From TrEMBL:
Sorted UniProt keywords: Nucleotidyltransferase, RNA-directed DNA polymerase, Transferase
Record's protein name: Reverse transcriptase (RNA-dependent DNA polymerase)
Reverse transcriptase domain: residues covered: 83-228
CDD domains assigned: RT_LTR
Pfam families registered for this protein in UniProt: RVT_1
GO molecular function: RNA-directed DNA polymerase activity
InterPro entries listed in its UniProt record: DNA/RNA_pol_sf, Retrovirus_Pol_polyprotein, Rev_trsase/Diguanyl_cyclase, RT_dom
Length: 312
């Protein structure tokens, strides 16, 4: 952290009293016409967390992230609880719904692309969008079953929706990408500059904060980092807290799979050698490793970002 970077707390549009931002354009989910709706049964909530689940439901309802429903609905997903250091996170388990969604397929930037664009920069700040996807309103309801607590529907984009990362990234990109010295990765805003003076509040960082206020974007001050030096990490701690152990030992599995493929298909000519190089690159893109830019600066890749809270 560079001591020269001082940020006025009043200048940062943070979420007060657990409030969240609200982007101006709601997300309209498009479903395939040939897919039959699915109603999933409620999952049993362990007695040890029943009180915590009810508290979280009430909080989400008070923030208008969800609302109670009693009317019939064609779709109904089950609820997934994720334990986090600060408490419980309630997520949607939309496996059937995800199969029916027509994706926008917005292209997310690779870490190589980000590193290339920021090559030569010396000072960085990373702003984290508070509550992530909840800053986007839904044009229609997504219903889930909370067991004895009844049914609710989301009024904001829920965690678990397969299209959520790309849609959120695209909306943030439209808000911030035209600003000089700014890159967007899903809900992270990276502000960079060649000098501390260029980066301080009278320049690039100030422009981002002003744009965020005008667009009603809110940041999580605890996760924002200002005045970082050349090496920094884009961290996504939520990825390690998903249920059912989906990502346990994924690096080991990928490494074993890669080794098996290489042993079975030893290169015998230039063509097969190039094929093996491509295979290695594909596997490496999935592993938790550092991406090095031409300048030698490193951006540490988050664990399993390609799976960013999409499928359980």
């Amino acid at each position: 952290m560079l001591n020269e970077i001082e940020v006025d707390n009043a200048a940062v549009p943070i979420a007060n009293n657990n409030g969240i931002g609200e982007l101006s354009v709601p997300y309209e989910i498009k479903l395939k016409s040939d897919v039959r709706p699915v109603v999933e049964p409620a999952r049993k909530i362990p007695i040890s967390i029943v009180e915590g689940v009810k508290k979280e439901l009430d909080m989400m309802e008070s923030q208008k992230i969800i609302r109670k429903v009693t009317e019939p609905t064609e779709w109904c997903s089950s609820l997934v609880t994720v334990k986090k250091p600060e408490g419980l996170r309630l997520c949607l388990d939309p496996r059937n719904l995800n199969k029916a969604i027509v994706r926008e397929w917005y292209q997310l930037p690779t870490f190589e692309e980000l590193a290339s664009k920021m090559a030569g920069a010396k000072v960085f700040s990373i702003l984290d969008g508070n509550k992530g996807f909840y800053q986007i309103k839904l044009a229609e309801q997504i219903t889930f079953n909370a067991g004895s607590f009844g049914r609710y529907c989301y009024q904001r984009v829920p965690f678990g929706l397969c299209s959520a990362p790309e849609v959120f990234h695209q909306m943030f990109k439209e808000i911030f990408s035209r600003l000089l010295g700014v890159e967007v990765y899903i809900d992270d805003i990276i502000v960079y500059g060649d000098t501390v003076e260029q980066h301080k509040q009278h320049s690039r960082l100030k422009n981002v904060l002003e744009r965020a206020k005008s667009a009603n974007v809110r940041f999580n001050k605890k996760k924002c980092r200002f005045g970082l030096s050349e090496d920094f990490e884009l961290s996504k701690p939520d990825l390690d807290t998903l249920p059912n152990g989906v990502r346990n030992n994924k690096d080991d599995v990928l490494n074993a799979d890669l080794t098996s493929n290489l042993q079975k298909n030893m290169p015998r000519d230039d063509s097969s050698l190039n094929a093996q190089k491509e295979l290695v690159n594909q596997y490496c893109s999935e592993l938790d490793r550092k991406v090095v830019s031409k300048s030698g600066r490193t951006i540490k890749k988050p664990k399993y970002l390609s799976d960013y809270i999409t499928d359980f």
